[in-house]
Amino acid sequence: MRETEKIWLALEIGNSRLHWALFKGEILNFTWDIDYLPESVIFELARCQTLDDLLLAIFPVHQRTEAQKQQQEIIAKASVLSPPAIFLASVVPSQTALWQTYPNIRIITLDRIPLMGVYPTLGIDRALALWGAGKTWGFPMLVIDAGTALTFTAADDNQCLVGGAILPGLGLQFATLGQKTGQLPFIKTGNSASLPPRFALNTSEAIQSGVIYTFIAGIKDFIEAWWCLFPEGKIAIKGGDRILLINYLQALYPEIAVRLIVEPNLIFWGIQKIVIS
C-alpha cells in the first residue's frame, strides 16, 4: 500500500504545544492539541506496534471528543507492523531533536516546500500555511495568522513569495500593557469579544479600544495593500484569535470580512500537499 493510502499523522510543534492531525490518505479526519511530551514518553512511542497504541500514548481516551471517538473504527483497522509515519514541522529545534528518536519520523524542512523566492529564516509554519492555502484555494494568496504573533505571508500567482510582516498578536499587546506598566490592568483577550466604545470612559475599555481599533486598522491596511497589488488575490486566516478577528471585521468592515477564508488547519493542509506530491 502506498504511503498516501495509509493512515498517517502530521505533527506541528509550536512554541508551547503539540498540534496533531490524523489523515487517511489525503483526507483529514481530526485534529487535537496536547502539551509537550516528556522525552521518556517520546522514546517509548518507538515501541508502539499499532496506531491505536500510539494514539493512546499521545492522546488519552478520556480527553477524546465525541467526534474523535467516532474515528475508532478507522483506527482499529490501522494495525501496522512498524510505527506509523509522523510528518513533523517544527519551530522549536530542541523539540525537533527529541522527536528524531522516533523511528518513522519524516521532518519537513523549508527546502521541501515548492515556494519560490523564500529566504532562509522564513518560519516553516508560515511557509506551510501559505503553501496549504495557495494549493487549496489558489494563488495569489495572503495568509494572516492571528496567533501569539500576528503574521502576514503572501505569494503571487507564480507561487513566488511576495513577503510579509510580523507584529505582536492581540493577546500579547494586552499582556505587554498589563506587565510593563505600573497602574494599567491586565486585559485578557476573552474579555474583548465585542467591540468596546471607541472613546472610552474607563481604563479597561480605553486599553481595549486602543489595542483593538488600531489592531484592526493595521490588518485592514495590509489587506487593502494586498488587493492593490493583486485585485483578485485571496486571503486565508488562521490562528487562535481568528474568530475574534473575523467578528471585528464583520462589525467594522463587512465588505472585507465576506471575502476572507477562515481555516484553522492551513499548516496541516500544507503538510498534506507535501506528503501526496
Structure description:
- This protein is an alpha/beta fold and 277 residues long.
- It contains 11 helices and 10 strands.
- The strands form 2 sheets. Strands 3-2-1-4-5 form a 5-stranded mixed beta sheet, with helices on both faces. Strands 8-7-6-9-10 form a 5-stranded mixed beta sheet, sandwiched between helices.
- Helix 6 (124-137) crosses helix 11 (266-276) and helix 7 runs antiparallel to helix 8.
- It is globular.
- The two termini are 16 Å apart.
What are the SSEs and their pairings?
Elements: E1 7-13, E2 17-24, E3 27-35, H1 39-45, H2 51-58, H3 66-69, H4 72-76, E4 86-90, H5 93-99, E5 105-107, H6 124-137, E6 141-146, E7 149-155, E8 161-168, H7 170-180, H8 203-229, E9 234-238, H9 242-252, H10 254-257, E10 260-262, H11 266-276
Parallel strand pairs: 1-4, 4-5, 6-9, 9-10
Antiparallel strand pairs: 1-2, 2-3, 6-7, 7-8
Helix pairs in contact: 6-11, 7-8
GO molecular function, one term: ATP binding
Keywords: ATP-binding, Coenzyme A biosynthesis, Cytoplasm, Kinase, Metal-binding, Nucleotide-binding, Potassium, Transferase
Organism: Nostoc minutum NIES-26
Defining key terms:
277 residues; alpha/beta; Nucleotidyltransferase, domain 5; 2 domains; five-stranded mixed beta sheet; 11 helices; 10 strands; globular; ATP-binding
